[in-house]
Specification:
Number of strands: 5
CATH superfamily: Dynein light chain 2a, cytoplasmic
Distance between the termini: 9 Å
CATH architecture: 2-Layer Sandwich
Number of domains: 1
Strand content: 25-35%
CATH class: Alpha Beta
Oligomer: single chain
Length: about 120
């Protein structure tokens, strides 16, 4: 099991990782961050709205399922939002920014899943 800070350190070992944050989806506040190059506090608050909007849409559609991750592709970056599925991490998500030219998206998703599952709050 890993602490929030240890988890963010592990996330930064993913090939192409630029920045990461563990975020409370209820408040939009960060619990831990790593890396840089952008305002992670602002990104956490903004991506909280993305998660909330997607959950509202799923509810409106009557979908009985859960979000694993949300991918936003930019010209130079991938932004990956991974919802924490563990009981202790309910209401949290990991936000990861990857350099598009250096990252392997499939491997990053797999590694992020392992980090998310090892997270202990």
């Amino acid at each position: 099991m890993a602490t929030p800070n240890e988890s963010m350190t592990a996330v930064m070992n993913i090939e192409g990782a630029l920045a990461a944050a563990l975020v409370d989806a209820d408040s939009g506040m960060t619990l831990a961050t790593a890396g840089g190059g952008l305002d992670l506090e602002l990104a956490a608050a903004g991506n909280t709205e993305v998660v909330r909007a997607k959950m509202r849409v799923m509810d409106s559609l009557g979908l009985d399922d859960r979000i694993e991750d949300i991918l936003i592709t930019l010209g130079k970056q991938f932004h990956l939002i991974r919802l924490v599925s563990s009981q202790s991490g309910q209401g949290l998500f990991i936000y990861l920014v990857l350099h598009r030219d250096r990252a392997n998206l499939a491997m990053a998703r797999r590694q992020l899943q392992g980090i998310e599952q090892a997270l202990d709050i």
